[in-house]
Amino acid sequence: QRDFQNSTESSLEASIAFVEDDIVSFMEELSWLSEGTAVRNFAQHVVTTTSFNFNSPEYLDIQAGMMRLFEDTLARNADKAASIIFLANDGRAYGEVSFDEEGQLQVIGGVRGTLMLGDETFSNALTIAEPNIPYLSRVSLAEDGTGESVVTAYIPVSSRGDQNNALGAIQVVLRLNSVEQILNDALSHPLIEQEQRRLVLVDRSNQIIVDTETGQDTALTDEVFSKDGDYIQNRVGNLAISSEEVFGLEGLGTPWHLLL
């Protein structure tokens, strides 16, 4: 029994390392992006300037600096993200880089009046989230095998000299297909590989985010989770389930847990 627990605990820790190296490291890159001079300068200009011309050389130059960073970030992380948008604290979008239907990067520099203030994740990112720390929405799962599952991150952009004054947020739509590939790769790692093993990533409400055995409908109960994030092992039916929290993520559906 002790050998089994030690083996599964080591395997689960190795699996979590795969997830954290991928997701959390990208979250850190997005934090760095929100703290950068280009994004902060643009946010400061948009929010604090009472009247400006969207076609003025000054505005276009400041926006171009931010958009180049968005484009570079998305191009290097095409497997992890689908779009990057700057949202001012009034909810309006002031610049977007995304992939079109052919998978080509497109840059949209115009202002869109669609307000986001009714969005709970966006509001929380501006009011209760830590400065420059990504705040995640609940997961949006693909339906009927079409499209892809995504989660949206909002990274607050603070004013210079006042970390608690959120001028807006960077919105990033994160692809979860890459996480599925990472978990499948993890199962073939020497520390983890073993017949009949399965990895399942779930959110706080037990919603399955990624499952390496698609089509499985085994009920997952609260008892498999450790309330303080530490390793826990339990049995559900004929399954031995080990669970541990994925650290480094904040948002509506967190904490996430990885089950082995």
What does this structure look like?
This protein has 260 residues and is of the alpha+beta class. Helices cover 32% and strands 27% of the residues. The strands form two sheets. Strands 3-2-1-6-5-4 form a six-stranded antiparallel beta sheet, with helices on both faces. A hairpin with a 2-residue loop joins β5 and β6. It is elongated and about 65 Å long.
Task: Name the descriptors.
260 residues, alpha+beta, 6-stranded antiparallel beta sheet, 5-stranded antiparallel beta sheet, 32% helix
End-to-end gap: 16 Å
Unreliable sequence segments:
none
Q: What's the β-strand tally?
A: 11
Task: Give the C-alpha Rg.
Answer: 20 Å
β-strand amount: 25-35%
Mean pLDDT: 83
Q: What composes the largest sheet?
A: 6 strands, antiparallel
Element order: H for helix, E for strand: HHHEEEHEEEHEEEEE
General form = elongated
* Portion in helices: 25-40%
Q: Helical stretch count?
A: 5
- Order of neighbouring strands in the sheet with most strands: 3-2-1-6-5-4
